[in-house]
Amino acid sequence: MQPSQSLMSIAKLMFRQAWSQRWGQLKACACPIERELIHVDNKIAKLERQKLVLSEKLAKSGKPKHGFDEVFELTLQILSNPWKLWISGQLHYAKQ
After folding, report:
1. In 12-32, which positions are buried (b, 16+ CB within 10 angstroms) versus exposed (e)?
2. Closest by alpha carbon to 96, among 80, 82, 77?
3. pTM for this predicted structure
C-alpha cells in the first residue's frame, strides 16, 4: 500500500509550511540576540576609547611641566632680587 500522489503533495506542503513557520520563529528569536551583540560591541568600543584616554593621562602624569633647570633658574632670579617681587604687587610671594 502506497500513499497517493495528492496525499504526498499535501504532506509535503504541510511540512514546508511547518518548516517555514519554525524558521520564522528562529529568526525572530535571533533579533534580540543580534541587538544585544551590537550593544556589547558598542560598549567594548566605548571602553577601549576610555582605556586609550586613561593611558594617555597616565603617560602624561608624573612628568613635570617644567624641567629642574628651568625651575631652579627662575627661583634664583626671584631670590637674587626680592625688590622686583615686592614692587610687582604679588605680595603673596613676598610673605612666604
Report:
1. eeeeeeeeeeeeeeeeeeeee
2. 82
3. 0.42
| Nearest C-alpha neighbor of 94 from the set 62, 86, 20 | 86
CA triplet 56, 59, 62: central angle to 5 degrees? 135
Between residues 65 and 73, the one the model is more confident about: 73
Binned at pLDDT 50, 70 and 90, residue 45 comes out as very high
Residue 35, Cβ density class (10 Å: 0-12 exposed, 13-18 middle, ≥19 buried): exposed
93 touches 78 (CB < 8 A): yes
Give the rounded distance of the alpha carbon of 80 from its chain centre.
51
> What CA–CA distance (Å, rounded) separates 5 from 12?
10
Query: What average pLDDT does this structure show over 19-24?
Result: 89
